[in-house]
Amino acid sequence: MSQKVYITGLGMISAIGNNVPECFLSLSQSKTGIGKIQYLTTRYKDEFLAGEIKLSNAELADLVGDQNPALNRNSYIAMLAAKEAVLNSGIDTKDGLRTGVISSTTVAGMSKTELYYKDLFKNDEHLDVLDTHDCGDSTERIADYIGNVDYVTTISTACSSAANAIMLGCRMIKHGHLDRVVVGGVDALSKFTFNGFNTLMILDREWCRPFDENRKGLNLGEGAAFVVIEGENALNHRKGKALAELIGYANTNDAYHLTASSPEGFGATLAIQQALALSGLKPTDIDYINMHGTGTPNNDLSESKATVAVFGNQVPKFSSTKAFTGHTLAAAASIEAVISVLSLQNSMIFPNLNFNTPIAETGLIPETTLVHTPLNVILSNSFGFGGNCSSLLFKKA
Description:
33% helix
């Protein structure tokens, strides 16, 4: 019989706070972190809103304690969030238990290399920066920062990346390959990201409005979040404390379009159904859904239809928290995993900001104010480009 897997540590940095307590305070006060762009140098500086971390690269480097000029914003925020998760869990990576690091990212070192891209055609003085460009670099930095790590890998599946990283970590524990895993995701803002999403015409020039009939698009954000997951054997061995249990997960792909989900939400429906089947729970056992809810016309309608397909006329309370943080791409699922655990711990549902009018096709209405209510099981959805759909189920420990 495979062992249970528990979340034992949380770490997060985002537009709403530089650590988990700060982020929780913003969530509980319905305080968004989305605003005018301050730190990223981009032509869209005055055109779009974004969820920026309120620290410069120099300030982040000071917090990390590493002044290596080749390091980039992605690595800085990943290292800070992972270190917080490790400290929060109380694990000791020198205790002989097998520790893994599984991270996810889409931007990787782009925010640094794009600054020197044109110069590389003229000379090679910035070639050292290329060493930190690839997706795996920030994961390696995390592993070195934590120390005594036995396994390292990186996942990049667009906006479902961190959810798939969490799933892989859970499976490796259940199959006896690792005892615990520091797992999550990171993405910093970059000009490349803004250009790409603007080309797709899915950026909102105002605050995003998830699940609103008049939604126009998303607000980009940046951030990193990591959780420590442990098998029950390792947790009992060190007499640690569980914050939540990871009881179900699934990844599907509807393969509908390169950047859009199927209008009917086929992939999302399957992901939710398969996560429920793995957990042994029924739809009526779900107390709250942290929706993917980007605020784009396609995503919100697709997810709404999937929700109705699974839950019928008994849709649980739900909200999207992306109007707090912005859409943080590969980090979104781990940021929302941390938020889900905070919801379980504090019996709180954080509101779906900026909502006014329900989507005509489904009529679903999210929670728009802070709700205090007992929570036992939370479903968290993350649906990425290419129809890569992932769902996680968290249970109160």
